[in-house]
Sequence to fold (41 residues):
Amino acid sequence: MGKEEEMPFTVKIAPLFVFPFLSVGLILLLFDLHHIAYAWQ
Fold:
């Protein structure tokens, strides 16, 4: 039962770690696209 009680906790914590990495990745991707578009002009 101990392991079953730990699962929801990790499931709730995981998005808190994943979300910042996703947002940073999106920002870096947008910056890369901007630099590529600027270089192509």
